Amino acid sequence: MQKNWRLVGAAAIAVIAGTCAAKADTISYADAITVLAKDCGADIKKFCKGMNLGNNRIADCLAQNSAKVSPTCTSTLASVAASIQKREQAQSSYKKVCAGDMARRCNGVVGDGYILACLIKTQKRVGAQCNQVISDAGWR
Questions:
Q1: Rounded to an integer, what distance in angstroms lies between the CA atom of residue 97 and that of residue 102?
Q2: Long-range contacts of 9-12 (CB under 8 A, 24+ apart)
Q3: What gap in Å lies between CA 120 and CA 134, rounded to an integer?
Q4: Fewest 10 Å CB contacts: which of 64, 77, 119, 135?
Q5: What is the DSSP string of 74-125?
Q6: What confidence score (pLDDT) does residue 23 get?
């Protein structure tokens, strides 16, 4: 659980705002901040009032007060952390997952951004796993 608190530590910096985000398979850092603001903002104000936001202080504060933090916040922290981790894994593995599609559909295309654009443009002919990893990475 400590790892989950740390993963969202950077996102907790803007948690004082209070809006809602749409659900997705994976979540961006910006959407994570929005979701955490909605579900953890009251806990942060209650348990971490007056703390400086940097260096994971808010995440550490929530972890130290985890027995008192609301179940909604605890659940949201876990799901946001898992989603961010899934997104990061997809971003780091897409070249391996999409290698065959890159060779077949984007042969001769140079540059990571251009190759990704090629895969997205030819998505109807790209394999399901490659399409999924691109979506999970947040690039579509």
A1: 10
A2: 9/56, 9/58, 9/59, 9/60, 10/56, 11/36, 11/80, 11/84, 12/36, 12/40, 12/44, 12/53, 12/58, 12/59, 12/62
A3: 8
A4: 64
A5: HHHHHHHHHHHHHHHHHHHHHHHHTHHHHHHHSTT--SHHHHHHHHHHTGGG
A6: 33
Contacts of 112 (CB under 8 A, 6+ apart): none
**Burial class for 88, CB neighbours closer than 10 Å (0-12, 13-18, 19+):** middle
Q: How confident is the model at residue 1 (pLDDT cuts 50, 70, 90)?
A: low
98-136 confidence digits (pLDDT tens): 999 999 999 999 999 999 999 999 999 999 999 999 999
Q: Helix, strand or coil for residue 22?
A: coil
Q: pLDDT for 20-29, tens place per residue?
A: 332 347 998 8
What is the predicted pLDDT for the residue at 2? 52
Of 128, 129, 106, the closest CA to residue 117 belongs to: 106
pTM over 0.85: no
